Amino acid sequence: MMNRFVEGLAKTRNGIFGRIGGLFNKKIDEEFLEILEENLILADVGPGPTASIINVLKENRDDNPFEVLKEEIYKRVNVVSPKDVSREPKPSVIMFVGVNGSGKTTSIGKLAARFINEGKDVILAAADTFRAAATEQLGLWAEKVGAQFIKSVTGADPAAVAFDAIKAGVAKGADYVLIDTAGRLQTRVNLMEELKKIKRVANKAMAGAPHEVWLVLDASIGQNSFSQVELFNRTVGLTGLILAKLDGTSKGGAVVAISDKYELPVKYVGLGENTRDIEVFEPRKFAEAFVKK
Ligand SMILES: Nc1nc2c(ncn2[C@@H]2O[C@H](COP(=O)(O)OP(=O)(O)OP(=O)(O)O)[C@@H](O)[C@H]2O)c(=O)[nH]1
Ligand SMILES: [Mg+2]
Predict the structure, then answer these.
(1) pLDDT in tens, 219-265
(2) What pLDDT score does 88 carry?
(3) C-alpha span between 131 and 183 (Å, rounded)
(4) Domains parsed from the chain with CATH numbers
(5) 101 C-alpha to center of ligand 1: Å?
(6) Hey, what's the torsion of the CAs at 228, 213, 209, 174, to 10 degrees?
(7) Among the bound ligands, the one closest to the CA of 215
């Protein structure tokens, strides 16, 4: 079976190795390292991680550079989520946050399909009440994948929608309640405060909810997503990341930079617009795909 990471990281990989393909089986020399360094930076691995990776390569000149690189990438993206062991609550309430158009609603739809496929009972909460179209979009996903759908009218309090959905989930013994929120710029203080309220109210509907808060990032933003991670994390306390649109970007290296800096686990990656285009993020597979010839 085709490794979806290999496919999804094609652009990133071509960006890195397109120019040094000829060096693939050669010994590490200064020129090799210079070109590699430049290309890691271009793939948005970030200056810090890039410098430390290049140093490791310099210290291990006799080893296969690609194996060393693979291992160094793996180490940096292999962030273990402290929450993973406690995935017992029923329902598991996951709140999705992010800037406009990052891929939240689509990721929720794809994840719902995945969970339902595993035999889980899923409720989708349309807590993006800003636009009628947003509720409709999530409603279409619910219909398509067979999830229960909780919505309200446009302009309604998003926290109230989250509350109703969680209550419904508890009453029904659902496995997951996935809360969609409106896209917002991380610098808009009032909108960020609204997320805090959704979180507070969720906790009133069910103690401990939301159990996860995932920031959905558009992978093509690359390192510019640092400020998003920073500010969303500060406001709502992130427990994980979803990297959407990894298929369309050459900046997949940002995963390395972000994991390295924030120690937040990437949970899933989006590899397209269709229902099946989401994959569990597996650090080992990612590193393999990143460094593949
Ligand atoms: N190629 C590709 N496109 C994606 C992926 N995820 C989402 N998209 C597309 O990106 C666009 C925005 O996705 P949405 O899911 O609506 O984004 P959102 O974060 O909910 O947007 P707002 O609610 O407006 O903030 C849509 O056209 C999606 O089809 C992905 O993994 N790959
Ligand atoms: Mg949306």
Answers:
(1) 888 777 889 999 999 999 999 999 999 888 777 788 888 888 888 99
(2) 72
(3) 11
(4) 4-77 (1.20.120.140), 89-282 (3.40.50.300)
(5) 5
(6) 140
(7) 1
